[in-house]
Amino acid sequence: MISExxxxxxxxxxxxxxxxxxxEPFLSSHNYRTHPFNVEHFKPISFVxxxxxxxxxxxxxRELLAAPNFSVQLNRVYFNIFEGRRRIQNSSMPxxxxxxxxxxxxxxxxxxxxxxxxxxxxxxxxxxxxxESDLSFSSADRRLMVGSSRADISRVASIARRFAEWRFSRxxxxxxxxxxxVLVMDGALRTAFVxxxxxxxxxxxxxxxxxxxxxxxxxxxRLFTTxxxxxxxxxxxxxxxxxVGPLWYYYPIADSLSPEHEAAFFxxxxxxxxxxxxxxxxxxxxxxxxxxxxxxxxxxxxxxxSCDASFPGYPYGLIDADANARVxxxxxxxxxxxxxxxxxxxxxxxxxxxxxxSEDAHSILNMLMG
Amino acid sequence: MATEVCGQIIAGLVGKILIRxxxxxxxxxxxxxxxxxxxxxxxxxxFDLIYGSQITQLAREMISGMNLEGMGAGLxxxxxxxxxxxIAEAQGVLRVTEKPHVPKVLPEFFSTVRHVEAKDLKFxxxxxxxxxxxxxxxxxxxxxxxxxxxxxxxLRHHMLVPSTTGRGKSNLVKVMLWSILGQxxxxxxxxxxxxxxxxRNSKGLKDHKDAKVNLLYYSVNPPSGANTLVISVRSIExxxxxxxxxxxxxxxxxxxxxxxxxxxxxxxxxxRGTDVQGVARSTRVVLQRIxxxxxxxxVDDQGNxxxxxxxxxxxxxESTISDIVHSLEGGKTVVLDTSKLGDEGELLVGSIIANEIxxxxxxxxxxxxxxxxxxxxxxxxxxxxxxxxxxxxKIGDNVYSTIAREGRKFKVGLIAITQITSAIPRDILTNLNxxxxxxxxxxxxxxxxxxxxxxxxxxxxxxxxSLDKGEAIVTSIFTKFAVPIQIPKFEDYVASQxxxxxxxxxxxxxx
Amino acid sequence: MILMQxxxxxxxxxxxxxxxxxxxxxxxxxxxxxxxxxxxxxxxxILICGDLFHVSIPxxxxxxxxVRKLRQVADRGIPVYAIYGSHDFTPGGKSIVDIIESAGLIxxxxxxxxxxxxxxxxxxxDPKTGAKIAGxxxxxxxxDREYYEMLDRESxxxxxxxxxxxxxASLDEFKPQYLSxxxxxxxxxxxxxxxxxxxGHIHGRIEGTLPSYxxxxxxxxxxGSQTRDHEASGKGEKRxxxxxxxxxxxxxxxxxxxxVCDFIFRDLSVDGKNxxxxxxxxxxxxxxxDVGNKVVMLRVRGELSGGKTSxxxxxxxxxxxxxxxxxxxxxxxxxxxSKEFAAIRAAGEDAQTIENRxxxxxxxxxxxxxxxxxxxxxxxxxxxxxxxLRPPVKAGESKQNYAERMKEQGIEALxxxxxxx
Lengths: 370, 511, 421
Description:
The complex is a heterotrimer of chains A (370), B (511) and C (421).
Chain A: H1 2-16, E1 25-26, E2 32-34, E3 42-44, E4 54-67, E5 70-83, E6 86-88, E7 96-108, E8 111-120, E9 136-138, H2 153-157, H3 159-176, E10 182-186, H4 196-210, E11 213-218, E12 224-225, H5 231-242, E13 248-250, E14 254-256, E15 263-269, E16 278-283, H6 284-287, H7 292-305, H8 316-325, H9 329-346, H10 349-356, H11 361-369
Parallel strand pairs in A: 4-10, 10-11
Antiparallel strand pairs in A: 1-12, 2-14, 3-13, 4-5, 5-6, 5-7, 7-8, 8-9, 11-16, 13-15, 15-16
Helix pairs in contact in A: 3-4
Chain B: E1 5-13, E2 16-21, E3 32-36, E4 41-53, H1 57-68, H2 80-83, E5 84-96, E6 112-115, E7 130-138, E8 141-150, H3 151-156, E9 159-162, H4 169-181, E10 187-192, H5 211-214, E11 215-219, E12 227-228, E13 231-232, H6 249-262, H7 266-272, H8 281-295, E14 297-299, E15 305-307, E16 312-313, H9 320-329, E17 333-337, H10 343-367, E18 376-380, H11 384-387, H12 389-395, H13 399-406, E19 412-418, H14 426-429, E20 434-437, H15 443-451, H16 461-465, E21 471-476, E22 483-486, H17 490-496
Parallel strand pairs in B: 9-19, 9-20, 10-17, 10-18, 11-12, 11-17, 13-16, 18-19
Antiparallel strand pairs in B: 1-2, 1-6, 2-5, 3-4, 3-6, 4-5, 7-8, 7-22, 14-15, 20-21, 21-22
Chain C: E1 5-10, H1 21-41, E2 45-49, H2 60-75, E3 80-83, H3 96-102, E4 107-108, E5 112-115, E6 118-121, E7 124-125, E8 132-136, H4 145-149, H5 153-157, E9 163-168, E10 196-200, E11 206-210, E12 213-218, H6 227-234, E13 240-246, E14 250-257, E15 262-269, H7 275-287, E16 294-304, H8 314-323, E17 328-332, E18 336-338, H9 351-363, H10 375-389, H11 399-413, H12 417-420
Parallel strand pairs in C: 1-2, 2-3, 3-4, 8-9, 9-10, 10-12, 15-16, 16-17, 16-18
Antiparallel strand pairs in C: 1-13, 5-6, 7-8, 11-12, 13-14
Helix pairs in contact in C: 1-2, 9-10, 10-11
């Protein structure tokens, strides 16, 4: 009987998730030095008045046309600024930038490379775009491969958006924020791709120069403890057992030893009613100079911004940035039709379709199966 | 100062344009909005309002639950004006370029809209022979633009005032009649079963500066200067009973026999019980009873022909009908206080006069002199008494239904006031070419009105249901669109029309 | 014990109305007969409600005859009370009624003052019966309406005793059908609760009652002054006056017929006939008529198919009837037209109705700025002027005097006396 099997599955899972032993934070050893769990690492976030502004940056992208050898995507990067709950109008920068990216497979150096060209939607975005020369990736790059298979061109195509976020954030820091303000990217500060550290470095440099705290907040985390528990879950369990109060941050967890991830890691619970905790990272060089009071003040501003009833404990600025950075399905369709129409006008439909059809069998099956 | 933007068009179709309301602007049901473009502007009317939100339904329900159960401390909607808003559903009612016309295009996508202003309504000009209705209304706001109907057209092509009690229909009719009184261009006969138009004890038509010349008031107990509502029994003819009371074939034949035999004294002879060959005694007795119970006409112990409601008389009122018709032909307003009459008495009086007018005007048409005559209109309350489907089927057509169907050919019109529009047959409803719709809670009635309106009001159900006292929608073949109006309170309207009292010459009495 | 008292109520005698000598004699005869009847019944007083004479300054022969009879009545001690009618009234000047009053033969009983825009009427009390009489005289063109509108009804209604209201006006509620559209007043302008309403001006007999208005009586024309009156007589309308018996209340209202001759009325349609056919047909139809010692009223109407209406020899018809003994013959041709001439079609039955209608129809074609010359006011003024200028030259009156008289009456009718004084 299915119900019996389900019972067995759940029992098994429950057994495996024994929370009696939390273990220790586990990050890959050569890049990080972890700190054992310690109740003393919990600090309450106490209310303090502040006029620090926080700029939230997020990006989105979607594929418009796909083939094994090319990918056309629509990319968008957006920012907003809040002082506590209050939105601050941006003074000089466009609120969002949009661009098409065309990633094409080229054979060079005896290998398939995926090169990306950038087409900003508006000329005034040109200065905010990543350089095309930085967007050439080998399909055999281990960081991009999936197992032993060549890198997926669609995934490579999305790197342009990531680079654009770094560059955009740098300009936000330069033009919209002042000393003591904070910039938050959606996601971790880890650079994963060739040339990405160049963009991160530019951003960090400007941030340090202007005294703007550069940071990132991750919605999800795949970190573990030595007992196989999720790191965030284990910290929450620890918090519950230790009666640390409803509003806290946990620091330190680990020190980064890798130049690809120059960050101090925090786990934060930003609202009393929050059901979730998040991983928050501050650029390492800046974090070490922050006093506990300053850290509390920054996190207190986050707390004030995280009281939106739709998602308690998650900054409203990131909710807004996510909503506005998203490329929606109906936009995709509109642009897709426009692109295909142009292809058709050029008389190149047969050529395009030959390559696109080698990819789209899945969608046909999906359509058949419903 | 430019009017502030109140919303933006975000989606929709021709029949349902969706407008997001700018926070703080309060778009209302029935609001007139304007979307401008290069060639002119589109006027839209809001017929529904719905909530819009960027937050999912489930999330909202959860948050609400938390609030209600006291668990939402410290939580709120940040930037609520961005994420929770009102969507107005609107319909284009008029496209105004060089010449206003029914819109056939959608407004530009994402164009902003603003509330209508007086300058947008310049095309609402004062017609010749104006009948005042009120001011343009946008939602609950009154725009300082007067709304008139061309009396010559509107009265001739009949009007319907559908409304439930207490919505201001008497007030509306009084305002209209006041504006007509000063013109001396239309003859209006008002059957007034509640004695509310003349103004015996309050402000009324009698207070008009031209009332002395253009207004006649007939009542069973008239105040000084007014006329006695007394009609000679000899003025009644058998045809006047058509559609008022139901007679069997034998009774109808009996009536005709008496008329043939005695001419204008036929009722007197029925009342006196004079036998007529060919009319069964039992029929004569029934006819006596009908006249006694329905119209109060009988012979008293002294042998005098009397009428219980004092309206019908043996000795007086010979020229009353002619006088009334003469006044109507002279463009005057004649108000009959029928409050002391029963239903049938009132309808009979109206029937006698209406028949006379219709006959005369049919004659003028034959003569070729009809166009020199003023249009005459009959105001009748509780119109289903004479226009109701079941009434017409059971008792047959009457002069009012004849007027409704054919009267406009002869410049004789009807202003029918009713609570139950659904009772009036469709072919009559479609002939009532101007409808001034007041509030109505009854869904069947609203649909009946909407189905027969001159403009497409299919989306205005909610609008009509939400009309407050004094608010109305004018739908007419003579208006460019269904105009929402605010009818002024009669007393206020009268006060605004007050004119300088002219000094009367000193009168010298010579005996 | 209160004795029954009586008064006679007469109106619209219109002495001097008929120019035909034979008819004029009958007219006087009717008056004499009525007065004789009053003497015979020994009424306590006679109340004449207007239009004793047809014009304000009638032919002196007519006046002489009337005065003789009034002298007889006066000698018997029966007072004669009167109010002006629309015909025997003259605005501003003296009428024959005033002169007869000065001679002590009649007494005008209307008196009142205007105080604070209200007309306060005084009661005249008959010394013998104590009956209180108040009233308003008639004026041409319905100009008396103003007086009714400003009448202080309350003071009249509060008076105790037997009250008579005398008036010379058409009442809306009691107007005959043929007077529809003519100037009249609503009965609500009269004071309520009087014991008797003595009317004049309407030439048909009316005896009516309305709530708060008992005994509203119009005796009708005593003989008749217009074609319509004689036609009505020919159709059977009785002429006469009323004798009212009363103590504290009216006990009896008796109509006393006055018949001085017979009338015959014939309505003759020559529609579709040509002149010759019409002539023959008329002669045929009139041949068998017994017209001896009767006043013959003929109404000839219809549209002739050929020829002019003036081609019909009505003179011959009249002579023929006269030879056969008719006292007088009236032919009403207002409804007679012919295809050859597009005459103005007037639907009225008699000259006055036709006049009013034509005036009304044509008033709109005259462009004037003065408001009193427009609409209903203008019509009233036009009628008033026409009536003022209507009377013919009197016997023995010089052209110059006639012209002066017409001028004076015209100025009075236009209300310009002060301008020209």
